[in-house]
């Protein structure tokens, strides 16, 4: 008897090549910008003296370039190669593939233009303004439609484990992006978040933590389950472990966002939930690491000679380290030491450089010879790249841990007399400068290794011949016949739509339980009657503060620790942030917290501090913002801002738009007079006047609180 007839088809390697080249190109750009950012932390003059390349502006450019350009393109290259081969079917629609490719590159280009210009929402990993957010959603849906279409036209009955992770990543990122990006536009390049204060913080870190989870983790776990067994020529260690790993990971991860907000004004119950689920996450995370490393059983001799496996082993190990450190950092006693320090930066880069970077390098070294039908040009160069990268990670991460402990211990230390041992924040900054220099050296080593990869890829391509369409054949998908006693999960794997719906339910539960009560139950954010909306000039100053990325170095959240209340003032209350769109609590402190800075210094102090920070704080590593004294602010959008914020619930009186400009100039004239009395001449429309107005407002409402209000 003859078997089923075979159908002829081919795999599109051209789209994989384009995504691969984009991965390499944007990777170099992102790493180079990161190196410049690292240098600015000990040499602020490296901003070249203009507003477009300051730390606050190009730090989000670096994070977006590395996460969405380098890692994002790597994910798509890996999926467009592996998914068709796992399903024995070409991608469903070539036009969608190319729309996805060019749409994604356009998004990256728009980010590279808008972020240095200060066009930003200020939300971590979600800084892009609303028109770009819409484009991201459209391109992402096109990518997902192409995946679902391929699943529906597949020739392979069961979905392999890698595809489970691809699907969960697509669904979750779509949900996260849409809900976190909800905003009301003021103009084509300006919007205000639909959420305010505490709610905005919770939604942002529900997104921010799970962007790390479902963009930097789950897609790469899918890639690991495909490329590591291929490179090692060994089957995955345990199918059942992969099932437990997948479902427990996607269910638990979505709850963990609040661990970024411990000891803040977030309701205690939400913080507790974040801690509980973060600690539980170590089990499925390490289940994935174990499944990856044990897949190499019987192949460890190859690791000594194969640079692809070298990169993969360190990548999976770095994943294990980062996913141990994450739950540990979510413990409140550890978080009290680590949060707002460089420990968080080091933790993120163990995952970024080790897990994402190294696995991307391994995948590219494996893919290029396959698609060009040749051998890797130089194993020695690849091995050199491996060691440069590994040493680079060590030089990057270890100094940041030393920096974090130094800063935390100094800031919390008291003398025998009960006073702060180091009352001036700048004392801690001076101590950690050598650590920043070593960190930049580590980044330089890592970047040097990436340049070796570029040369190796070019030479590999030159010595081979690219196969644009790779032919294959397989029988058509036969109608399913129910097998007696079939394992339940194997049955799910035959139903891609049902499987996707189950994954969607799993990821929605945690978000719904944490976010909806925080928004709807008013007791979660006790109101303070003395807290009033920002005046027009303060609003303009706040938007300027956001535009310059000041939140990248300064927090606005004083936690209820004695060391912080002694240094900064009364701890922060939830009700103080009800008009903050977006919230500006910050993630790290390269400078002191600013939540109680209002009224602490005269207007002239702020002026001199912005013109030359070292004049007010000797040893400061903050760059000068001297252009703010001459740059003129355009206040023409102010009426639209007032109207938009009123639509979002801010109690500006009806018709206040007509009065706002006059009120703005009354307050501006007052600041100008104060500065003139100190011998400083500025015009009321200058940027520095608006910024001073905002800084002088910070934290002053709480001083007016009466005993009858919380």
Automatic annotation (TrEMBL):
Residues 14-460 form the Cytochrome oxidase subunit I profile domain. Keywords: Cell membrane, Copper, Electron transport, Heme, Iron, Membrane, Metal-binding, Respiratory chain, Translocase, Transmembrane, Transmembrane helix, Transport. It is found in: Cell membrane. This is cytochrome-c oxidase. It is a multi-pass membrane protein. The chain crosses the membrane at residues 21-43, 63-81, 101-119, 131-152, 164-186, 206-227, 239-257, 269-296, 308-324, 344-368, 380-402, 436-455, 497-520. Residues 536-699 form the Cytochrome c domain. Its EC number is 7.1.1.9. Belongs to the heme-copper respiratory oxidase family. The keyword Heme applies. Its cofactor is Cu(2+); heme b. It catalyses: 4 Fe(II)-[cytochrome c] + O2 + 8 H(+)(in) = 4 Fe(III)-[cytochrome c] + 2 H2O + 4 H(+)(out). It is an enzyme of class 7 (translocase). It comes from the Bacteria. Pathway: Energy metabolism; oxidative phosphorylation.
């Amino acid at each position: 008897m003859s078997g089923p007839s075979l159908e002829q088809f081919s795999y599109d390697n051209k789209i994989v090549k384009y995504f691969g080249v984009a991965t390499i190109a944007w990777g170099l750009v992102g790493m180079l910008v990161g190196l410049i950012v690292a240098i600015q932390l000990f040499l602020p003059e490296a901003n070249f003296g203009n507003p477009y390349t300051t730390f606050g502006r190009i730090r989000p450019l670096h994070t977006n370039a590395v996460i969405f350009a380098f890692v994002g393109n790597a994910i798509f290259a890996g999926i467009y190669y592996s998914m068709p081969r796992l399903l024995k079917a070409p991608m469903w629609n070539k036009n969608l593939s190319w729309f996805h490719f060019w749409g994604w590159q356009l998004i990256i280009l728009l980010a590279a233009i808008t972020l240095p210009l200060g066009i930003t929402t200020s939300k971590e990993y979600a800084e892009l303004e609303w028109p770009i957010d819409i484009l991201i959603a459209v391109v992402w849906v096109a990518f997902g439609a192409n995946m679902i279409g391929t699943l529906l036209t597949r020739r392979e009955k069961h979905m392999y484990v890698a595809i489970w992770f691809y699907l969960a990543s697509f669904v979750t990122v779509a949900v996260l992006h849409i809900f976190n990006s909800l905003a009301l536009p003021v103009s084509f390049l300006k919007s205000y978040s639909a959420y305010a204060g505490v709610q905005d913080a919770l939604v942002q870190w529900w997104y921010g933590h799970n962007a790390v989870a479902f963009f930097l983790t789950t897609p790469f776990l899918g890639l690991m389950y495909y490329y590591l067994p291929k490179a090692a020529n060994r089957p995955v260690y345990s199918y059942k472990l992969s099932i437990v790993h997948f479902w427990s990971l996607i269910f638990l991860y979505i709850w963990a966002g609040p661990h970024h907000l411990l000891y803040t004004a977030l309701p205690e119950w939400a913080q507790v939930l974040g801690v509980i689920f973060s600690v539980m996450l170590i089990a499925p995370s390490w289940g994935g690491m174990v499944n990856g490393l044990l897949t190499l059983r019987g192949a460890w001799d190859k690791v000594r000679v194969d640079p692809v496996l070298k990169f993969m082993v360190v990548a999976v190990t770095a994943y294990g380290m980062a996913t141990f450190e994450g739950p540990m950092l979510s413990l409140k006693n550890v978080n009290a030491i680590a949060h707002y320090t460089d420990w968080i930066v080091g933790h993120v880069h163990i995952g970024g450089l080790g897990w994402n970077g190294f696995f991307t390098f391994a995948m590219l070294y494996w893919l290029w010879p396959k698609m060009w039908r040749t051998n890797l040009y130089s194993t020695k160069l690849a091995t050199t790249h491996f060691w440069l990268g590994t040493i680079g990670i060590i030089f990057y991460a270890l100094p940041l841990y030393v920096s974090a402990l130094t800063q935390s211990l100094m800031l919390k230390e008291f003398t025998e007399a009960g006073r702060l041992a180091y009352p001036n924040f700048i004392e801690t900054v001076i101590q950690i400068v050598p650590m920043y220099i070593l960190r930049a050296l580590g980044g330089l080593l890592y970047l040097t290794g990436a340049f070796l990869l570029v040369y190796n890829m070019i030479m590999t391509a030159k010595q081979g011949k690219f196969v644009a369409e790779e032919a294959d054949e397989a029988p058509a998908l036969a109608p399913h016949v129910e097998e007696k006693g079939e394992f339940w999960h194997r049955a799910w794997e035959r139903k891609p739509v049902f499987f996707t719906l189950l994954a969607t339910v799993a990821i929605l539960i945690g978000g719904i339980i944490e976010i909806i009560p925080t928004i709807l139950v008013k007791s979660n954010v006790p109101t303070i009657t003395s807290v009033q909306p920002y005046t027009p000039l303060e609003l303009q100053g706040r938007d300027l503060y956001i535009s310059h990325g000041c939140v990248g170095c300064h927090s606005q959240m004083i936690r209820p620790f004695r060391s912080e209340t002694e240094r900064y003032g009364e701890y922060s209350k939830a009700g103080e942030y009800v008009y903050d769109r977006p919230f500006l609590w910050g993630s790290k402190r390269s400078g002191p917290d600013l939540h109680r800075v209002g009224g602490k210094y005269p207007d002239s102090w702020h002026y001199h501090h912005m013109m030359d920070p070292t004049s007010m704080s000797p040893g400061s590593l903050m760059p000068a913002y001297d252009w703010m004294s001459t740059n003129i602010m355009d206040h023409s959008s102010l009426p639209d801002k007032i109207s938009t914020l009123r639509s979002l619930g801010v109690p500006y009186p009806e018709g206040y738009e007509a009065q706002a400009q006059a009120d703005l100039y009354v307050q501006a004239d007052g600041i100008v007079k104060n500065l003139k009395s100190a011998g400083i001449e500025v015009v009321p429309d200058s940027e520095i006047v608006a910024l001073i107005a905002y800084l002088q407002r910070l934290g002053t409402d709480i001083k007016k609180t009466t005993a009858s209000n919380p």
